[in-house]
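Exercise: predict the fold of this chain.
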Amino acid sequence: MTHTRLFEKGKIGSLELSHRILMGSMHLGIEGDREQLNQVKAFYVERAKGEAALMITGGVAVLPEGSGDHMYCLTDDDHRHQLQDIVEAVHQAGGKIALQLQHNGRYAKSSETGLAPVAPSAIMSRITKETPKALTLEGIQEIKAAFIDGAVFAQSVGFDAVELMGSEGYLLNQFLSPLTNQRTDQYGGSFQNRMTLPLDIISGIREQVGQGFPVIYRMSGEDYMEGSTTREETQFFAKKLVEKGVDALNVGVGWHESKIPTVAASVPDAAFAHVVSAIRDAVDVPVIGANRIHTPDVAEEVLKQGQMDFVAPARPWLADAEFAKKAKAGDHAGLNLCISCNQQCLDHTLGHPPLPVGCLVNPKTGHEWEWSLEEKSHEVENVAVVGGGVAGLAVAKASAEQGNNVTVFEAKDHLGGHFYLASQIPSKSKFRETIRFYKTSLERLQVKINLATQPTIDELKNYDRVYLATGVVPYVPEQIKGVHLPHVVTYSDILTGKVALGKNIAIVGGGGIGSDVAHLIAQRNEVPGAVKHFFADYHIELDSSQRVNVTVVSRSVKAAKGIGPTTRWVLLSELRRLGVDLLKGYECKEITPEGLWVESQEDRQFIEADQVILCTGQIANAPLYQAIKDHVPTQLVGGSDDASELNAAKAIQQAYRLVYDHGREKVQTKS
């Protein structure tokens, strides 16, 4: 697609922007730590060089009780100095940056702030399991003053704009909703009253910063909470914000406690563009959208349709720091696309405890400063990489970037390994984009790729260094009687299409792989929407006789254990919807030709099955290691090194670490 609309110039108030791709707000999980300041600056500088038209910082707390783990807070003088350093670094790199002001309200955790959370009303948060204190009138005035002061600070230190976080269920959003605001004073009751605080804040900011400083309001287009703010109220609120002086509206959707997924891979592209469009219809200032607008083509389409004026993707900038630059150049093949896995971003920031943000597909995210200091060795090595899964692809790319001559050997006729197999799972088709990216990168780095090839020991002896990334093979639990019966297969047999599916299927193992395989099989029972409509139009009953029945036997009482918190609940909801039977806390004891016996601490039962799929873990596939390690420096990487879990993020990080550590050793040896 030609991105004509995407790269038109635009304006937010007085701020002129060179194109329409912003970078949405993201917490990095390291803010506030002065020792990490260089890394925070490096993160934003890389995206500025990647030509983000405007970057929006992660939320900066206006008061301590509305803060959280590793958030900047404006009551801390050192945090203010750090923020000023970030602005200066971004401007030196030629970028623009806005400060997002935030108060978590009832989403704040006392374990992180050391203070009791506050909110419009004392209503327990399902996220924190805490009941906040209802704000006094004095407390509300303090919050109002803190937001205004934050905007004044942003202007004084050179931020190009300020954005107020009034979406996703945070404090300003809490004042707007009758679910969280049950006050009976001037800040509660009617919708007019519930709007009072955010509107007063905007009025106060505009009075203090003047007309020239751009003010953006991040508003909730839809809360997706039953009984919350209506569409009509939301549009009315948008108009009032503009009347009070807002220059642009950035439209978010969903609260953190909503039962509607908004950022998971299962959410269709641009699914919420109509929500943003409804706000755009109500106002005459630029409107910004973000959720599930994660590729340049999708962004171009929503702009062409007139559904919004700017896009502000967030996670795609983690996946590729040059997101806009490559989009502008039309370099789709070289773009490292976000696969919406959430594993190193949202799962980290929303974890207990929170962890620094990274990216599964981009191992440099979160390490920009550290790796920018790496000095390349000028000693060129001939490197062999055995295995073309993501661990092998990553180690080949990293080694070639160091200037080495690299050859990849892959036994199959395609690249990707288990990552390719996983791309067949519903909502994981984007995994193939990562394989495409690595393939393109290796071609550009002139890496030689040998498919359907297994190197001999003598061949490998000719290389200066060998990386074995031969992955894993499914583990077959020999202790289970009947495990070798003809109808017992492994997850690999199913995903490669080696065997056909049965009719009554029992999956042994309810972890990530077992749950994903259950999802894949059960979704095949779904009748495509077009077919459903066709049969409904002609009043023909659908035939369900070909339906496959799926039972998952999970030893853990927590099904899908190991899957991140931001996606696990979505997967479990899908399994329930698709009719998958989850037996939690049961262990498979014996497999018979007719099915299998399972036991829990209180129960023993028989499950009829004409096919049993083993999803019982994996073991390292490293037969070459012992044969080659004494002849040439050899390192295991990925699953062949640690088969305890299939973790692509860990494998890719390890691949880069091994290459960079070796390069550092060569530089030190030379010096």
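Check your answer against the key: The first strand starts at residue 10 and ends at 12.
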